[in-house]
């Protein structure tokens, strides 16, 4: 993983250096057919499997043992590969960009240098100076380019390019349209042109997502995202002002600066996301709801922002008044404790993990907010629901987070779940409302949290969005007043921060800073709620 | 003597006929054809298709399965049969959400759609997991009852004749649950 990150971190300078050396050899080619450069990964290619002499084999065995022990010790300290299909970079929370090559404009056409093209395709170049042809060979594939000729021979196909291949500064330049004509199979790296960054890039395993096509109609506005993997798409934030989408694929394209009416989306911008790419939409206040349309066959995913209510629409998150919120006291409630262990799996007990997380989160929140952070329990003791509520209310909490970890019988269940008081909670059933419409409705004290339902929901959206963006999902929101918030007179959430019965979640938490990363993500969500962004 | 024997035989035959008539009268009857019920060509008379809900493998929703059940009349038998199907577990891709061994002790339904459902101790004692397991156990039960018994609007769960404040400590169960409020 480190090696891979290092490779992705190599800067443009490193790429230029590589390209330069290749280019120099292309220009120097004078033979009828010269192998100019080879860029192969010689993994295991040069190993000698000869048996060592009889006298030295004990020494060799000892060396091998030491090397193995050192290697395994080093591996223990490295971030471990994760099960599932999460892309690289999730573990280290470093946004990894795919390999890319710069493009340039020549006579109004966009070109990519052939050395960059060969590097991205992992191809070998053969230059025939007598006929001014260059052949790129990548495994079973062959691409033949001719100087000042718009025709390229790709395997057995002849492809007409929008402009001829040019020679500039001793290096051939190929129109970027070539990358769309390259064969799609597992033996050849998949390339795409990113007009936003003006580069040709190697498509990562997680695929790419393109700039949306926006269709504005009186009934609503639809954003069609070209996407390789429609199943890897989530709505990370549902507030109108910050409607957030997250894709596992790498974003290529250019987003419009502003969107004029009748579009129900005022603006769309790319936002930071540890996993894949994220977008934030600003939706007009009169939008009634949204709906997702998955067009897997067509390779695109649609988000419909509707202007009129409909039964199949998802609701936007409720929004409070604008401006930063005052958070003077934050109460953290580590779940379970004492004889109540909570979810227990081999090596992990929920009551201990919630306390550790609460301590880390306290540090994070105190660092980020000028707020006093109070824990309902500082040690391993059991508290009743009333005791927890009393501590929060006595501290005059502005916000309460009840911290838990989930468990479920199916190992497929993973991610985080948040429970918040429903805005409709406390209202009677329809039949009772009809029967006693004239009667005064009294809210019981235990349901006092429902007074803060809107703020709680906004807090939930902010925290879940942060968890999603940091790859700690999938996330779920359930509008049910949980036991831990009974009688709590403040906006609050009960958070199942991860699923302990999931091997992937356990592995993530067991990493050296796994719990710290989780605390940082939650704190970032709280900070976002406080800023009321 | 002969007359006595004849009287005994007649008496025996009469007694046998009376016993046969009494047996026919008190024994199970075949369902009479009804113009309002199942049609004469229905092969499913006496069986009813119900829909029971289990948790999805990902623990984020419910999945349903159709089951054929013998139609019963009493409220207790209907609810007990549904809970029994839930306890039997899924045959498809779902995951059993109800704690193993849960059965119905008593059921009451008032005229405003409030069902008080008294479940066996296994409901509480057999529970394992976190809030998702708790949420889905209740949701599976509530949704199954609500779908197959539209007259039920709210359900109050009790266990072994006593109120239960919560199943696993995360969600309060001390008040009736609105069926429409759950997934």
Automatic annotation (TrEMBL), chain A:
Gene3D superfamilies attached to this UniProt entry: Zn-dependent exopeptidases
Annotated keywords: Hydrolase
Domain MurNAc-LAA: from-to ranges: 389-527
One GO BP annotation of this record: peptidoglycan catabolic process
GO cellular component terms, semicolon-separated: outer membrane-bounded periplasmic space
Annotated Basic residues bias: 1-10
SUPFAM superfamilies per record: Copper amine oxidase, domain N (SSF55383), Zn-dependent exopeptidases (SSF53187)
Name of the protein in its database record: MurNAc-LAA domain-containing protein
From TrEMBL, chain B:
SMART domains: Germane
Residues of the GerMN domain: 79-168
Name by which UniProt lists this protein: GerMN domain-containing protein
Protein species of origin: Eiseniibacteriota bacterium
Alphabetical list of InterPro entries matching this protein: GerMN (IPR019606)
């Amino acid at each position: 993983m480190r090696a891979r990150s290092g490779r992705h971190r190599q800067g443009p300078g490193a790429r230029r250096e590589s390209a330069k050396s290749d280019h120099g050899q292309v220009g120097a080619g004078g033979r009828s057919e010269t192998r100019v450069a080879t860029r192969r990964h010689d993994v295991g290619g040069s190993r000698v499997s000869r048996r060592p002499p009889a006298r030295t084999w004990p020494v060799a065995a000892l060396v091998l043992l030491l090397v193995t022990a050192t290697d395994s010790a080093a591996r223990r300290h490295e971030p471990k590969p994760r099960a599932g299909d999460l892309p690289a970079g999730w573990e280290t929370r470093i946004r990894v960009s795919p390999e890319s090559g710069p493009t340039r404009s020549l006579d109004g056409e966009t070109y990519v240098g052939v050395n960059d093209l060969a590097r991205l395709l992992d191809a070998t170049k053969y230059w025939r100076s007598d006929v001014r042809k260059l052949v790129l060979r990548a495994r079973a594939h062959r691409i033949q380019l001719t100087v000042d000729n718009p025709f390229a021979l790709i395997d057995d196909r002849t492809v007409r390019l929008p402009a001829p291949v040019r020679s500039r500064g001793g290096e051939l330049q190929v129109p970027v349209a070539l990358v769309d004509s390259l064969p799609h199979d597992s033996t050849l790296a998949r390339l795409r042109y990113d007009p936003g960054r003006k580069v040709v890039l190697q498509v990562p395993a997680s695929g790419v997502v393109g700039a949306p096509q926006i269709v504005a109609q009186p009934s609503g506005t639809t954003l069609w995202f070209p996407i390789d993997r429609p199943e890897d798409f989530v709505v990370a934030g549902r507030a109108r002002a910050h409607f957030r989408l997250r894709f596992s694929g790498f974003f290529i394209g250019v987003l419009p600066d502003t969107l004029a009416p009748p579009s129900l989306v005022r603006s769309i911008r790319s936002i930071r996301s540890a996993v894949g790419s994220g977008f934030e939409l600003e939706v007009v206040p009169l939008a009634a709801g949204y709906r997702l349309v998955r067009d897997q066959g067509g390779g695109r995913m649609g988000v419909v922002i509707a202007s009129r209510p409909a039964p199949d629409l998802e609701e936007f998150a409720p929004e409070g008044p604008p401006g930063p919120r005052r958070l003077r006291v934050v109460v953290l409630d580590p779940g379970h404790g004492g004889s109540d262990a909570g979810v227990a799996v081999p090596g992990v007990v929920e009551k201990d993990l919630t306390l550790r997380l609460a301590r880390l989160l306290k540090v994070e929140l105190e660092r980020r907010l000028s707020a006093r952070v109070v824990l309902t329990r500082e040690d391993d003791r059991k508290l009743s629901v009333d005791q927890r509520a009393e501590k929060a209310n006595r501290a005059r909490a502005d916000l309460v987070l009840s911290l838990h970890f989930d468990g479920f019988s199916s190992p497929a269940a993973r991610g985080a779940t948040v429970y918040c008081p429903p805005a409709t909670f406390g209202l009677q059933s329809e039949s009772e409302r009809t029967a006693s419409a004239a009667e005064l409705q009294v809210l019981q004290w235990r349901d006092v949290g429902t007074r803060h339902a809107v703020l709680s929901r906004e807090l939930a959206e902010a925290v879940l969005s942060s968890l999603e963006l940091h790859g700690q999902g999938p996330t779920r929101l359930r509008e049910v007043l949980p036991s831990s918030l009974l009688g709590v007179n403040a906006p609050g959430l009960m958070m199942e921060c991860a699923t302990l019965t999931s091997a992937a979640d356990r592995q993530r938490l067991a990493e050296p800073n796994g719990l710290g990363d989780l605390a940082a993500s939650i704190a970032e969500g709280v900070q976002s709620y406080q800023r009321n962004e | 003597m002969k007359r006595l024997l004849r009287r005994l035989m007649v008496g025996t035959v009469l007694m046998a006929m009376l016993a046969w008539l009494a047996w026919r009268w008190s024994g199970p009857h075949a369902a009479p054809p009804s113009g309002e019920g199942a049609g004469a060509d229905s092969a499913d008379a006496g069986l009813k298709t119900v829909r029971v809900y289990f948790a999805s493998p990902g623990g984020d929703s419910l999945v349903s399965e159709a089951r054929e059940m013998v139609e019963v009349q009493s409220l207790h038998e209907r609810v007990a049969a549904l809970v029994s199907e839930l306890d039997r577990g899924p045959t498809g891709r779902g995951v059993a959400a109800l704690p193993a061994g849960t059965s119905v002790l008593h059921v009451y339904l008032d005229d405003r759609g409030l069902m008080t459902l008294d479940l066996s101790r296994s409901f509480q004692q057999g529970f394992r997991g976190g809030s998702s397991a708790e949420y889905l156990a209740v949701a599976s039960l509530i949704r199954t009852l609500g779908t197959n018994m539209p007259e039920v609007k709210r359900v109050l769960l009790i266990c072994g004749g006593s109120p239960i404040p919560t199943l696993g400590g995360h969600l309060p169960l001390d008040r009736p649950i609105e069926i429409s409020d759950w997934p």
